[in-house]
Amino acid sequence: MRKSLTFCLILFQTLLIAQPQISVKSFRKLTNDLTARIDFPLKDQNGDLCAIIKIVTDETDFKWDGDRLGIIKVEKKTGEYWLFVPWGAGRLTILHDKLGVLRDYKYPEPIEKACVYEIQLTTAKVKTVIEDQEMLTTWLTLKSSPEGADVYLNGIQKGTSNYTEKLVPGKYTYRLEKYLYHNEAGSFEITGEETNGKKLLAIDLRPEFGYLRINTLPENGAKVIVDDIETTGVTPFTSEKLKSGKHTVTVKKEMYQPKSLEVTITDNQSTIENVTLSPNFANVTIVTQPEADIYIDGRKIGTGSYTARVLAGIHTFEAKKESHYPDKKDKDVLAGHDLTVNLTLQPQLGNLEIVSTPIEATVFLNGVEKGTTPIALRKLLIGKYDLQLKKNGFSKIVKTIIIKEGQTVEINEALKDGMTKVDMVKATSSTYDTTVGDIDGNVYSTVNIGTQVWMIENLKTTKFNDGTEIDLEFDKKNWSLFDTPMYSWYNNDKTKYINDYGALYNWYTVNTNKLCPKGWHVPSSLEWDVLIRYLNGEINAGGKLKEAGTLNWNAPNEYATNQTGFTALPGGYRSYKGEFDNIRKEGFWWSTSDNSIFSAWRIKVSSDSWGINVSDSHKHYGFSVRCLRD
Is 0.70 topped by the overall pTM? Predict the structure, then answer.
């Protein structure tokens, strides 16, 4: 059992005990006292700052009772009591076991928020005697639905619901606060006589939130921004819980004007808004004659005819096609007004006249039969053409011609009995008796082609010529991620592919200038061009470089003669994403010449073409390497 002090009051003066011995000597407002506003601010159940009434007395053990607004808190200070009361309080009852009751004392002036007042009491004198008495207590349990609300007792934050505390008899105020719910406040009394010493308060919190649903017309997919915070969803959009009240919502969609509106969210309700967006584009159809590549503001967007949304404003529409003059038009695109742009390209033309001895040789231009000699072909598009003359009993003539604008190319050929005339300088005879070894001990045969000496096998070294290991990379992610020298075997299978097809190196390996054996180097794009021109251009070079047959190439392996001895083999490639493709179908070889920060020049030969392709590829690609003697 706990003990507390109970005060027995003995009057010093001879007065009648039945008469109250308490009176108010004075009441005044302390206008310069900021205790209630700054030093000890305390909020009442409505969230307003309490006023403080400082009651000056040298006696103790008073009890206090307010009017219907109650007393939020009482603190005993030296020589006085502090009563925290709501603004607007009008009356005060002062109780004392021995001094009696001063009932319904009316404050002489209105009690205002966060102000301080002083009451001086006049009382009889008492003497205290201490005796033991059992203290009655009760366990309070304060629950809320939902849980997790901040709990205030007599204005003091105690914790979060569900909350328990042992309390002594008396009157108490409570307040519950939780985000997205209304505050709940009230009062209760502990008597000490509660059943099983327990008192339960269960409070249902009222929602202070709702939901927002937005649809956009004429189409959904718009971003939604609420109070300057971009949400993760797009229309049709349903928000998470939004605090009740007004919110500013902005809806944005590409090609439409953004739209802002103010919405009001109601407790536990869904607010639905249908927002009509104003287009900031027009549907533009571009038609080309003849079919050509289409550009809008310098960016290629299609071929032939194309319809696209185009933002309002002035735009440049252009059609381009090889051997034609481009057509370009500037148009003012108006939002909501569809537009058709017709682009007509004028051809660049030349002429071709062909005479042969004997006459009546069949003429093929790019594989298409055109008639027999003598023949005049008018209005040909400018550019390169593959010309063939065929006549039974005579050799076939094959040559490349170039048609130029406004000019007539004249061809006069004499066909020879039983021989084939090829319009190119024949490659010098190839020799295979020269070899070179790399730092791994691999030995490669070489061949003379014109003024150059080439390896006739794909490189397969795993080290630079100074002995430094080259990183062997199996992982696709690492292959695409790092701008450092790497190599791999096709499909990461060295055993199957090393002998015929060699290794695949990224361009960063090539660029070290240490990949080939000493005295040899990876060719530049200019050095590849020397070889290609020696073989009479890109249209003819591929077949003369490719190994003949289909032992290592997929069919058809067009026009593969390997008359140079270069023995090009299709090692495929590893893409910049780390994926392997086109083994036995295509062969790619790096040059040391870069085209941009991301790409470098390379050559390609294919099983379905007798030509050679010169282009650029991403530096992360893995291609084969051929070395050229210094």
Answer: no
